[in-house]
């Protein structure tokens, strides 16, 4: 009689559950939120706060993969994820997600304050429950509303340093919030068939590619001027303003190309440019502050 | 007679690595709480009206 076989997941399978690529964007924007909040802050407590946000994001990723394992198995982009591939049992992913959520929120409360811990708990809940369980399979507005979870990290980090919120961190949240739809819809234009087969009501599936391309341009028209708002409030200076203006113009150009042509290369170009755009925008904020400090 | 699950050498190595990472994560968390506590004490968190 053959011995029973068991699959033992490797460490990298558990790391994959935490969606490290999404986590890196979260860490980056949170770091910028922390640095841009007034005052020097404490380096150790700042590190612990950003770490808590990173672990919270990872926990959300694990909970998302636990709930979405059935649709992940139907899509080429996600079928190699740890649960559909059989590397990790769904219950393990759920346990990991819940445990890390608790650790992340408690660490934030300990290192920073209750406001930041509550915001982090809300973000995890919003991504895992509101987006993953309620919106994703029900409405084409899933990534628009759900995008709030990915947009909040700079505000959580700001709150961790200041024990308060202000207009500036909310502007950073708004920039990521309006950046998310053009970014994800560009990707979903390329993967519309897979989303349709998996039964996910992404905009290209429910309203067609033409409407999606129009909506991409619409959100880009809001995003480009919105990205200049930190200059008006004094959070950023002329260097950021120049980068935001040039980047916004380029973003509008890429979005306009998508709006007027259904060639996949335009959607692909917008998708990749949108990543570069957000990274450059958020890197410009602390870079300008650093240059200002050196020049003083 | 009970059939026990037998792990291959590769699976045993994977389990050991996983257990090691879990231990490191727990030790890391303890160290983090300790360092946060020190940082808070340095910031004078105990200096407050009673």
Give an overview of the whole structure.
The complex is a heterodimer of chains A (296) and B (50). Helices cover 78% and strands 0% of the residues of chain A. Chain A has 296 residues and is mainly alpha-helical. Chain A has two domains: 10-164, Tetracycline Repressor, domain 2 (Orthogonal Bundle), CATH 1.10.357; 166-296, Four Helix Bundle (Hemerythrin (Met), subunit A) (Up-down Bundle). Chain A is globular. Chain A starts with 10 loop residues before the first helix and ends with a helix. Chains A and B meet through helix 3 and helix 5 of A and helix 1 of B.
- The CATH topology of the largest domain in chain A corresponds to Tetracycline Repressor, domain 2
Protein structure class of chain A: mainly alpha
Beta strands of chain A, count: 0
For the biggest sheet of chain B, the summary is: none
Main β-sheet description of chain A: none
Compute the separation of the termini of chain B in Å.
67 Å
Tell me what the CATH architecture of the largest domain in chain A is.
Orthogonal Bundle
Instruction: Provide the β-strand percentage band of chain B.
Output: under 5%
**How many beta-strand segments of chain B?**
0
- The tally of structural domains of chain B comes to 1
Averaged pLDDT of chain A? 94
Number of helices of chain A: 15
Inertia-based shape of chain B: rod-shaped
Domain module tally of chain A: 2
């Amino acid at each position: 009689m053959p011995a029973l076989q068991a699959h033992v997941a490797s460490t990298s399978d558990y790391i994959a559950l935490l969606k490290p690529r999404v986590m890196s964007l979260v860490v980056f924007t949170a770091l910028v939120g922390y640095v841009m909040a007034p005052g020097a802050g404490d380096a150790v407590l700042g590190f612990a706060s950003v770490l808590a946000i990173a672990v919270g994001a990872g926990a959300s990723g694990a909970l998302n993969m636990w709930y979405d394992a059935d649709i992940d198995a139907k899509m080429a982009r996600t079928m190699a994820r740890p649960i559909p591939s059989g590397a990790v049992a769904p219950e393990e992913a759920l346990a990991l997600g819940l445990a890390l959520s608790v650790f992340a929120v408690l660490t934030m409360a300990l290192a920073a304050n209750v406001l930041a811990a509550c915001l982090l708990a809300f973000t995890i809940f919003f991504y895992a429950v509101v987006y993953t369980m309620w919106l994703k399979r029900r409405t084409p507005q899933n990534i628009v509303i759900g995008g709030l979870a990915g947009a909040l990290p700079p505000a959580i980090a700001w709150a961790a340093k200041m024990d308060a919120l202000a207009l500036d961190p909310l502007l950073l949240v708004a920039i990521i919030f309006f950046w998310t739809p053009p970014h994800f819809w560009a990707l979903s234009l390329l993967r519309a068939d897979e989303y349709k087969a998996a039964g996910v009501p992404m905009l290209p599936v429910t309203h067609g590619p033409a409407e999606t391309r129009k909506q991409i341009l619409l959100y880009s028209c809001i995003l480009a001027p919105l990205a200049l708002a930190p200059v008006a409030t004094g959070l950023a200076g002329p260097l950021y303003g120049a980068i935001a203006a040039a980047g916004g113009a380029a973003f509008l150009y890429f979005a306009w190309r998508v709006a007027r042509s259904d060639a996949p290369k335009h959607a692909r170009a917008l998708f990749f440019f949108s990543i570069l755009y957000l990274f450059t925008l958020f890197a410009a904020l602390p870079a300008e502050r650093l240059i200002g400090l050196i020049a003083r | 007679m009970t059939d026990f699950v037998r792990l291959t050498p590769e699976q045993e190595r994977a389990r050991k690595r996983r257990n090691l990472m879990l231990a490191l994560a727990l030790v890391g968390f303890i160290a983090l709480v300790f360092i946060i506590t020190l940082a808070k004490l340095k910031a004078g968190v105990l200096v407050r009206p009673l």
